Amino acid sequence: MIEVKDIYKSFDGVQVLKGVSATFETGKTNLIIGQSGSGKTVLMKSIVGLVRPEKGEILYDGRDLLQMNREQVRSLRTEIGMLFQGSALFDSETVLGNVEFPLMMYTRMSDAERRERAQFCLERVGLKGADDKYPSEISGGMQKRVAIARAIALNPKYLFCDEPNSGLDPKTSILIDELLSDITHEYQITTVINTHDMNSVLGIGENIVFINKGYREWVGNKELIYETTNEALSHFVFATDLFQKVKEYVIHNARR
Ligand SMILES: Nc1ncnc2c1ncn2[C@@H]1O[C@H](COP(=O)(O)OP(=O)(O)OP(=O)(O)O)[C@@H](O)[C@H]1O
User: Fold this and answer.
1) Does the predicted TM-score (pTM) go above 0.90?
2) Separation CA 128–CA 239 (nearest Å)
3) ipTM of the prediction
4) How open is the CA angle 190-192-23, to the nearest 5 degrees?
5) Atom number, ligand 1, closest to the C-alpha of residue 12
6) Ligand 1: which of 8, 31, 32, 40 to mutate, most ligand atoms within 8 Å of CB?
7) pLDDT (tens digit, 9 = 90+) per residue, 135-151?
8) Distance between Cα 40 and ligand 1 center (Å)
9) Homologous superfamily of 2-222 in CATH?
């Protein structure tokens, strides 16, 4: 579990996070949602230590990131997997080489052990047999799977995904969401996903944190979101006709 307590962050005198508190639960897909510019990325970067907040606590199962020394941060990093926007694969490395990379950086595994672990992860994400291909030779959805395999290579306790569906078609997006959700449950990972994607929100939102103008305005899940009376959240999630109709359908059926 990750607990974020009363986080403040500003850039050049402009307050971006204004006392955000949230809990991200173990073994669940935790979503951070909000409009563009609301502070989602700054919040996620603060949690992983890429941005240092002026104030607050970031507790990884009770361990405060902001109080850690360099060695403790390095050790915590081995427990964290990250999936960046795009896929951020190394173009000059094969699929297998990409997945082996964190193992090379953070473990003393032998070549054979590394290969075996990387192949296991590739198989887990449904990419058996693609070891020797280069990122440019595979589709965007497959690249995302390689990035997921790389992110889970070190068997992380915590997994951070920044807009995992960006650039993917709706069908592939759902498959990637399902994969992230399955992995989260199977390995009991605390998964935190930054997303704009309403399909993801309504599909895998087990714990949803809504950020609006630097404040945490709502916390709930994909069931509760249909009943929200929060105007900003409702406007954000049900902005399109399609999602408005989904909402009406769900509420109508719940009352029958
Ligand atoms: N390094 C930085 N320096 C100055 N301002 C920044 C920096 N990083 C973020 N900001 C500002 O903080 C605000 C929140 O940005 P953030 O990237 O967190 O938004 P977001 O909710 O993730 O948006 P999007 O969904 O478009 O990625 C924006 O106004 C942005 O310009």
Assistant:
1) yes
2) 40
3) 0.96
4) 70
5) 4
6) 40
7) 999 999 999 999 999 99
8) 8
9) P-loop containing nucleotide triphosphate hydrolases (3.40.50.300)
